[in-house]
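ESCALATION

Customer reports they have been waiting on this structure for their group meeting. Please prioritize. Original submission:
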Amino acid sequence: MTMSNTTQSAIEYTEDGLRIEPEAFVKQLPNLSYQQGVLTIEAVSADDLVKHYGTPLYVYSKQTILDAYHAYSDSFAAIEHQVCYAVKANSNLAVLKVLAQAGAGFDLVSAGELARVLAVGADPSKVVFSGVGKTAAELKAALQAGIGCFNVESLSELDTLNTVAAKLGVQAPISIRVNPDVDAKTHPYISTGLKDNKFGISHDVAVAAYQHAQQLEHLNIVGIDCHIGSQLTEIDPFVAALDKVIELIEALKHVGIELEHVDLGGGLGVLYIDEEVAKVSEFAAALLPKLQQLGLKVLFEPGRSIVANAGILLTKAEVLKPTKHKNFAIVDAAMNDLIRPALYQAQMAVIPTHSQSYANAHTSADDKPNEKSWDIVGAVCETGDFLAKQRLLSLAVGDVLAITGAGAYGFVMSSNYNSRPRPAEVMVAADKHQVVRQREKIEQLYELESVFEG
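Update from on-call: job pushed to the front of the queue and completed.
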C-alpha cells in the first residue's frame, strides 16, 4: 500500500526525528480536532479535561467506540454474525456498558473479565471464553453464568471442562481454537497463529481433537475458532487463515461433526502514526464471499480496532533536560501508565494539545518553530521508561501532550511500579465528560498489605 496524501502531509521523517503536523494528523482520527488551536475530543477541549481531572489522564470517546462497533455490524450485515468485543483491549466498565447496550457480545480470557461483563448487564449467551490457562474455578463460574461458548485451546482443557460440567450436570458449549500456522506479519509478541506460539491446537491434529471432544458426554461441539495475531495491517493473512479453517470444517463433516459457527477472532490493525490499514468494509469484502458460501454463523473478536483510536493519554511536561547528545522531555506519565512503547517498541503519535503553541508561540527569527528532537520519557527508574523517541516538538515546561491511539492496551496494562498511582479515566460524549475511574490515591497502593508481626 502507498501512504495516503493526508498521511504524507502530516508526517515527516528527518535525520533529527519524526515531525507530526498536528492539525493535519488528527484529521485522520475519529472525533479528534483542533478548535481554536486546542485539541478537542468530540466537543470537549483537552484544556477543560486537564482543568477538571489533571494529568496523566486517559480520555475515551463514546461515539468513536460506537462507530467502530457499527463498522463491523454494518459490514457483515449480509450474514448471521456476532461481534464479541475483546475485553482485554480495554476493560473499563463504561466502555463495556456502551458496547453491551449497542448489542455487542464479549470475548474474555479470565474470571475477572467475566465478572466485569456481567456487572454491566451483558447477555452471557453472547460471551465466548478464550485463553490458554483457564482454571477449573473459572470454567465453573462461566458455566454457571451460562456463557455462549468456550474456545478450548488444549486436549487437557477439554477433559477438565468435561469434568467440571459433569459435576454441574450441564453440557458445555465448545469450539476448538485451531492454530492455522499463518504468518500474521506483525510483532512477534502479538503473533498468535504460528506453530511456535502457545495458542490453540495444531491444524494437523484438530480433527482428532474434535473426535476426542465428541466422546466426552458433557461437551457440546458448536464451533471452530482461530486467531492469528494483533495489529494486522493486511487482509491476506485473514483470508489464508479462513481457507485453512474451511478445510477443517469440510474434514469434520466427513467424520460426522457439524458446526454451528466459525469464529475468526480479531486482530485488524489501526492507524498509530503512518500505518496503511484496511478498513473494516474492505476486510468484509474479502471474506464475505467465502463466509456466505459456508453458511455458518460468524463470530468476530475485535478489540484494538474498536477502542484504540477512541482513546488518548494526556500528559504534562514536568522537566525539560536538553543534553549534548539527547534531549529528554520528562512527563508525568510513564511506562507504568503506558507500557506498549517499552514492551513492544510500539510507535505512538505524540501531539501538543495547543497547536498554536507548536506553530507560533515558540517561533524563532526565521519564522520556523523553535523545535528540538525530544525523547518523551517518564520518571520511572528504568532506562526503558520511554513513551516516544526522537520527536520534533517545540516544548516548554507545563505543556500538555496527547498520545493518540491509547484506548487499547493502555490503562488496562498499567501498573503501580515505583509505587505510582494509576491515572484517572474519563469518557466524553458530545459536550459532556465524566470520570469513569477515579485516579488512585497513594494510600490505596498498600491498603491490601500488612506488616508481618512474627
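Sent to customer with the following note: The CA atoms of residues 141 and 313 lie 34 Å apart.
Escalation resolved.
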